[in-house]
């Protein structure tokens, strides 16, 4: 597995996942920029994603849904807040209803992803920030940490095909 660490910081209100890939940063960057590659790994293996919209520009919006083993659909959205290709990506990530509209009862997570050289490949660090400890604990209880590790663990197979 390519995920090398996962850490919850309840004081900083963050969840950090670190993964390393045997590929240059621009190739790892493409698994975020290309919606067809993105939907091959965003979400755990049993909840594959379908991106209906992916405007990968600052201020751009993405909408997607993940489909569970029983056909249940979980909708989500992103709003891209910063891009410095192929070094850094930031976006807000939230839950949505079936029309792609934000679910105000669920937290919005700010994600910052950095790509750095590491040995013969790239270290990708994903830091998810929460507004409160309650939000962090709620999403951890829903399986976010394990889901992200499983999701990022699928990227190697995409890079092997690229």
What kind of sheet is the major sheet?
8 strands, antiparallel
What's the helical proportion of residues? 10-25%
Got a strand count?
8
Structural classification: alpha+beta
**Numbering strands along the chain, what is their spatial order in the largest sheet?**
1-2-8-7-6-5-4-3
* Unreliable parts: none
Secondary structure tally, helices:
5
Q: Give the assembly state of these chains.
A: single chain
Average pLDDT, all residues: 95
Q: How large, in whole angstroms, is the Cα Rg? A: 15 Å
Q: Characteristics of this structure?
A:
single chain, 162 residues, alpha+beta, 5 helices, 43% strand
Describe the model:
The chain has 162 residues and is of the alpha+beta class. 23% of the residues lie in helices and 43% in strands. The chain has helices at residues 25-33, 35-38, 133-141, 144-152, 155-161; strands spanning 3-9, 14-21, 49-54, 61-67, 73-84, 88-96, 108-118, 121-129. Strands 1-2-8-7-6-5-4-3 form an eight-stranded antiparallel β-sheet.
In short:
With 162 residues, the protein is α+β, with helices and mostly antiparallel strands.
Topology readout:
Blueprint: E1 3-9, E2 14-21, H1 25-33, H2 35-38, E3 49-54, E4 61-67, E5 73-84, E6 88-96, E7 108-118, E8 121-129, H3 133-141, H4 144-152, H5 155-161
Antiparallel strand pairs: 1-2, 2-8, 3-4, 4-5, 5-6, 6-7, 7-8
């Amino acid at each position: 597995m390519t995920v090398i660490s996962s850490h919850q910081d309840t004081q900083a209100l963050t969840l950090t996942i670190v993964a390393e890939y045997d590929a240059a940063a621009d190739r790892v960057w493409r698994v975020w920029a290309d919606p067809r590659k993105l939907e091959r790994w965003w979400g755990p293996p049993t909840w594959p994603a379908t991106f209906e919209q992916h405007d990968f520009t600052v201020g751009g919006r993405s909408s997607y849904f993940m489909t569970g083993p029983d056909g249940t659909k979980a909708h989500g959205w992103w709003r891209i807040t910063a891009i410095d290709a192929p070094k850094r990506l930031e976006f807000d990530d939230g839950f949505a209803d079936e029309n792609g509209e934000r679910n105000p009862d669920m937290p919005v997570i700010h994600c910052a992803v950095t790509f750095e050289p590491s040995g013969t490949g790239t270290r990708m660090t994903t830091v998810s920030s929460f507004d409160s400890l309650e939000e962090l604990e709620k999403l951890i209880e829903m399986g976010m940490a394990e889901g992200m590790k499983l999701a990022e663990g699928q990227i190697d197979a995409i890079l092997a095909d690229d």
